Each structure stands twice: as structure tokens, then as C-alpha cells.
């Protein structure tokens, strides 16, 4: 790719991401946006694009990096997160499972069916708590088109109707303590994010998490990649079809009404928003405590 093609690629990428932010009104003047920055290509692109968007409207941005405690993997991501936040002059808040919950993922993953279960729960919990404490109005994540349709198909496979209501680039405020998510890369294929990082020589970490091959997400990703290579455009067609069904035809809203998704309470232990009396993170802390004690 020559310089002209690189410039064209970059400007096309920027146009689509900033276009999505504007079309969906993801960010408004005066907001404080917390970017969930893992150091991977998706979250790094999100940070760079939001930095670009700051040239158009006045809003503030802080990055939050969560170290799950995965030896030989996460430190590369934390390094890339620091480098990019530094380069763009964005304040970076570094959090870890060890400091916030008292254990690393490596120490506790074996107590669960998949490492991704506690990983997702504690990462979301720490991100939300941190974003809420600093007064952020939204959390921007690096979810791309591939992630979105994978999540959707996984919910489909599990018949998890409630998760369908989370489809789309913007999640509503459903509890004052639950900071809503936005997904500026919602319609950008993962492959293009990788091309952007390589083309622009951006420091990101490309390593695969050592636990990822055990997950349902990895199998769904593989299935979708095979479908795409057999028939180009499959992923975009799936996204289009879900968008039509769940957003344009308001099926997501109907599910929310039917399933009572909006009814969140406070966890009786930690006071974080929860759909049950005890939140998932506190429930898991109990499982971890029991297993750790029986290991002694
Ligand atoms: Fe966590 Fe699973 Fe992602 Fe690894 S693949 S970082 S365990 S959610």
C-alpha cells in the first residue's frame, strides 16, 4: 500500500467511525468519556478516534486499563495502553484484579468452567466502578463488528434473550450507578482495525489471550471467519439483518419491556447495580473464597 492508499484508508476509517458517533449521538459536548483501554488494537483505535473527535466537539476523555493478572500476556497490553495514552496526552487510570478484588485471574480461573466467565464479570465491575467514581457519563469500548455479531450469536446459542437488548452501538442508562456503554467501532470489521494498526505503525498488542481458545467466543469467531471466507460479506449481512430486526423494528426494546431488563437494584453486599440480590462479582468472590480455602 502506498502513501496515497494509506491516507485514503485512514480517512475512510475516520469518516465511518466519526460518522457512527454522530449518527447515533454517542458523545455530547461537555461529557467525560472513559475509554476501556486494554492496549489491544480495538481499544487503541477507539482512543485515537475519540481523540480525533475531540477536535470537533468539546468533551473530556480518561482511559482505564484493567490488568486481569494473566502472566506473559497482559503486561504487553498495559505497556501499549501506556504508550498510546501518553502519546495522545490522555490520562490513564491503571487498575488490577489483584488490587481491586484480591486475586489474579491466573489464581482463580480454574474454579470456573471458562476463564472468560470471572474475567468478564470482574473487568466489567472494575471498569464500571472506576468510571462511576470519576464521574464519567459513558464508557467507550473497542467492540468491533466481529465482536458484536459473535456476542449476538452466542446469546442466540444460549437462548439468552436479555443479552439481545444489548445489541447496538449505544446502551441506555438503566441505573444511575451503571455507566452506559458506547461502541464507536460497532460497524468496523476486526480485520480493518488490524490493518489500521499495522499501516500506521501503532504500538498495540496482537497476542491472543492464553485462555481464549477455550471459550465459546473463540469457536463462534472461527465459525464466522470460515463463513466469511466462503462468502465475502457474510458478517456485514448478519449485522445488517440484526440491526433491522432488533433496532429498526424495535425488538430489543420490546424484549427489555417484556423481560424487565430495566429493573436493577443494588447488590446487598457491595451496593453495585445488580439484577439479583447479590451481584455476580460478589457471588464469584464467594466461590473463589471457598475454593481457595479448600486448597490450603
Ligand atoms: Fe479474559 Fe477470556 Fe478475554 Fe482472556 S479471552 S482476556 S480470559 S475474557
Give an overview in words.
The chain has 296 residues and is α/β, with parallel strands linked by helices. Helix content is 53%, strand content 9%. It is built from 13 helices and seven strands. The chain has a five-stranded parallel β-sheet, with helices on both faces. The protein has a two-stranded antiparallel sheet with strand order 6-7. Helix 2 packs parallel to helix 3, helix 7 packs across helix 10 and helix 7 crosses helix 11. The mean pLDDT is 90. The site of iron/sulfur cluster (SF4) has 9 residues, from helix 6.
Q: How many H/I helical runs?
A: 13
- How much is the radius of gyration in Å? 19 Å
What small molecules does the structure contain?
Answer: iron/sulfur cluster
Number of strands: 7
Mean pLDDT: 90
Oligomer: single chain
Percentage of residues in DSSP E strands? 5-15%
Q: How do the SSEs run, as a string of H and E?
A: HEHEHEHHHEHHEHHHHEEH
Shape: globular
Determine the N-to-C terminus distance. 58 Å
Uncertain runs: none
**Secondary-structure-derived class:** alpha/beta
Spatial order of the strands forming the largest sheet: 3-2-1-4-5
The profile of the biggest β sheet is:
5 strands, parallel
- Helix fraction by DSSP (H/I, runs of at least 4): 40-55%
For this entry, give a set of tags.
single chain; 296 residues; alpha/beta; five-stranded parallel beta sheet; two-stranded antiparallel ribbon; 9% strand; binds iron/sulfur cluster
Tell me the layout of helices and strands.
Blueprint: H1 3-23, E1 32-36, H2 41-53, E2 60-67, H3 74-88, E3 91-96, H4 97-101, H5 105-108, H6 116-133, E4 138-140, H7 145-157, H8 161-164, E5 181-182, H9 190-199, H10 216-230, H11 234-248, H12 251-259, E6 265-266, E7 273-274, H13 280-295
Parallel strand pairs: 1-2, 1-4, 2-3, 4-5
Antiparallel strand pairs: 6-7
Helix pairs in contact: 2-3, 7-10, 7-11
Bound molecules: iron/sulfur cluster.
Iron/sulfur cluster binds at residues 68, 115-116, 119-120, 209, 211-212, 215.
